[in-house]
Design a protein that fits this description.
The complex is a heterodimer of chains A (112) and B (114). Chain A is mainly β and 112 residues long. Helices cover 0% and strands 53% of the residues of chain A. In chain B, the strands form two sheets. In chain B, strands 2, 4, 5, 6, 9, 10 and 11 form a seven-stranded mixed sheet that branches. Chain B has a four-stranded antiparallel sheet with strand order 1-3-8-7, with no helix packed on it. The chains are: A mainly beta (112), B mainly beta (114).
Chain lengths: 112, 114
């Protein structure tokens, strides 16, 4: 059973556009929601994370929007650049458990 | 954050052999995790390794196939035993650094079994 559902599977965006990746979860015990960026041949790297006490978190061009009632969160990449081309994974965890549950990943391609 | 290194970075192995992957962290951590990532797929947790106790394996993974050692707070090994082509994958070490919420990943070990 997939604890975190992620969409779309792949995404193509023009340079300068906005990339949006969505995730949904069911377990209301989840209270930490990170996003990871992975380039080919590399391990996933933490990009940005949010806790459910806020509805939005912004770091540079990257923003997480969080809707607790809908149990959904999304990553927005503003002014997308070719260097953002990578696979993005959302994840969720709870304080009571140390396991991270990952989404299935989104392959983002930003075309010049 | 935590800086994690893995050895080897990649290997090509014959069916029926075993490979031990090493994971070294630059700081002491309580919890270390081993993941498998098949090509184009998400991350699947194999086991959680705490120092001084037996590793905890997730459903579908067993100690005989993936024995893990955790001799101290900065080091762990994962062995992939009696390999078959289905074991071809990227194996990732991860840690939950102290006083943080997140997991940090190593660069991965790309394993190909012929």
């Amino acid at each position: 059973q997939q604890q975190v559902k992620q969409s779309p599977q792949s995404l193509i965006v023009q340079k300068g556009g906005i990339s949006i990746i969505n995730c949904a979860y069911e377990n209301t015990a989840f209270d930490y929601f990170p996003w990871y960026q992975q380039f080919p041949g590399k391990g996933p790297a933490l990009l940005i994370a949010i806790r459910p006490d806020v509805s939005e978190k912004k770091e540079g061009r990257f923003t997480i929007s969080f809707n607790k009632s809908a149990k959904q969160f999304s990553l927005h990449i503003m002014d997308s650049q070719p260097g953002d081309s990578a696979t993005y994974f959302c994840a969720a965890s709870s304080d009571t458990g140390n396991q991270f549950y990952f989404g299935t990943g989104t392959s983002l391609t930003v075309i010049p | 954050s935590a800086v994690i290194s893995q050895k080897p970075s990649r290997d090509i192995c014959q069916r029926g052999t075993s490979l031990t992957i090493q994971c070294q962290v630059d700081s002491q951590v309580t919890m270390m995790f081993w993941y498998r990532q098949q090509p184009g797929q998400s991350l699947t947790l194999i086991a959680t390794a705490n120092q001084g106790s037996e590793a905890t394996y997730e459903s579908g993974f067993v100690i005989d196939k993936f024995p893990i050692s955790r001799p101290n707070l900065t080091f762990s090994t994962l062995t992939v035993s009696n390999m078959s082509p289905e074991d071809s994958s990227i194996y990732l070490c991860s840690v939950r650094a102290p006083y943080t919420d997140t997991q940090y990943f190593g660069p991965g070990t790309r394993l190909t079994v012929l």
